[in-house]
Amino acid sequence: MTAEVASVSGKQDANYAHDVAQRYVEAYPWADVAAIEASMRVNGAFAAQMAALGRFFETLGVERRDSRYTILRILHLARGPKSQNDLRGELGVTSPNVTYLIDGLERDGLVVRAAHPTDRRATFVELTAQGQELAAKLVPSMIDFMATVCRDFTDEEKRLLNRLLDKFHRNAVESYPKGGA
What we know:
The chain is mainly alpha-helical. The protein is elongated. 67% of the residues lie in helices and 7% in strands.
């Protein structure tokens, strides 16, 4: 493991997750060592990806704010205005949160709000020329970033990883529901 990777994960040993899982099993023999190791590896991979994403945005000279990027991507790929409600739904955030994000993008001159032509309650958001220029730079660069983090995977391995992560995600969502069982 390189020093840079170790500093991202805080671990010096590539076998860290396995070793910790083994310690769990020593203390709790009924524990599922493979599940512990898998969960720890997913967490470690996420932390490493987030650190790489920060470095990626830095190379582009852009402040890293994932939700702001996501709004720019949505609007760029939509090739037209979207309602704030559409953005809220796609981001999976509250209305006040999407308002806050759009306020910041608007302050930076990247988006503008426009009244819905037929529904006074709805507001459209669209990219400004500056926002279009930034999104046209960021979105293709993000495609390259995603390809880079998957560069050593075959197409079949990527499909398998997607299926496995879908299961992991579903299990996480369905476990320990809000408000108790």
